[in-house]
Every structure is written in structure tokens, then in C-alpha cells.
Amino acid sequence: MDILSHGLWGGLLFGRKSRRDFSIAFLFGIIPDLASFGPLFISQIFVPELRVRPDYSSGSPDLSLLPEYVTQIYNYTHSLVIFLIIFLIVWAIRRKPQFLMLAWPLHVLYDIPFHTQAFFPTPFLWPISNLTIDGVAWGDPRILIPNWIGLIVFYVVWYVLNSKKEVMPLEK
């Protein structure tokens, strides 16, 4: 799934109480991809000699063109095992579960069926197992279009429900 969709689903499902909660859930929804591909994106902008130009014309590009660190970070950020460890550490430190963080495993769960073996299959049990699922690419119109229609519908409903709450007078 695209990074924006991950953030929007995370915000919708876990961050509806306030704008602050929405922002935090949105951030946790994009963290797996932001941490994996963000450094590559920044290096592409500021270090011209490191620029990688993947060729998407014939499907998935050659992953060997990408720096190894992208795959390594991807393994960490797309692992439910790693998430669980971090979630439990944060829970122990904060002395209560941080439910906004659940946008992160939601991201991973969406990626499992919507990534193919050819392009960043999701290592959701890493480092315990290298098991991945050969799913349907999120860019496939059968996935991409319903995803965005779903986001639009749910956000419109959320907006309508919230706008009615604000307009209705408080009962005494």
C-alpha cells in the first residue's frame, strides 16, 4: 500500500479522539516505510552520486540497485515481532499501552497481502522466520482503486458524523 494510505488508515482507525492523536497515529502508520525508504529518498536529493534510478517500465525494478541498508531497515520495520518488542518496552516505560502505536502493525498487516515476492515482500515474522506471502501488488487497480474509494468514503462519513456533533446544541 502507498505510504499516504498507510497513514490515513492508521489515523482513521486509531487517532480519532483529537488532532494530536490523529497526527501520532498517522506517523506510526507511515513509520515502517518512512524509516526504510526515507534515508534513500534524502540521499537521492542531496548526494547526486548516490542516485539510483529504478526502471519500472517492465514491472518491479532490480532491487540489487538499492543500497543494502534499505532492505535491512525494511526487515526491522515490517516485522510484527520487532513491533511487539518495541510496543512492550514502551508499555513498560510508560506504564500503559500506547494504542496509537497500533497503526504500525496495521501497516504491516496491510502490506502482507499487498506486496509480491518480486518487490519487497513483507517479512512479518522476521527475525524468527523469513516467511513472506506472494500477494497482489498494491499498485494493481483492483487494490489501489478500492483502497482509495474506501478511504474517501470512511473520511467523508467521519467528517459528516463529526460536523453534526459540533452543530447540535448541547442538551441541558
Q: How would you characterize the overall build of this protein?
A:
By secondary structure, the protein is mainly α. It contains six helices and no strands. The longest helix has 28 residues. The radius of gyration is 18 Å and the shape is globular. The N and C termini lie far apart (46 Å).
Salient structural properties:
globular; 172 residues; single chain; mainly alpha
Annotate the secondary structure layout:
Elements: H1 3-14, H2 19-46, H3 68-77, H4 80-94, H5 103-111, H6 141-167
Helix pairs in contact: 1-2, 1-5, 1-6, 2-3, 2-5
**Biggest sheet record:** none
What is Rg? Answer: 18 Å
Quaternary arrangement of the chains shown? single chain
In whole angstroms, how far apart are the ends?
A: 46 Å
Overall 3D shape: globular
Kindly summarize this structure in a few lines:
The protein has 172 residues and is mainly alpha-helical.
